[in-house]
């Protein structure tokens, strides 16, 4: 049975996953359960627009974690900017009263973020595999 994580494009076969973490501005604990639930819905829709899939989502009062399966044509920085921008806009509109108590200047997310590649073999295994490849004679 083929691996469902391996996707095929016109000229590429890929299996790319990123672990993303976004924190609220000043790490203020503004995120409630209903806000996190709505945030997940919004971020799933944004990922779908990019041809990506939000595989996992969870969070606490001051940050969220995402596991995103994305195609190689999507720059991770553009996906992150869209995820943060669209979610901030909708959440500020829908939870204006609650969020205004926690946020200064209307910014929901900190401008920084964490992005880590994940999935597949550990780096040590990939490094060993590449080191053990035969070089052409000559």
From TrEMBL:
It comes from the Bacteria. It holds the Pfam family Y1_Tnp. Residues 13-133 form the Transposase IS200-like domain. InterPro entries: Transposase_17, Transposase_17_sf. This is IS200/IS605 family transposase.
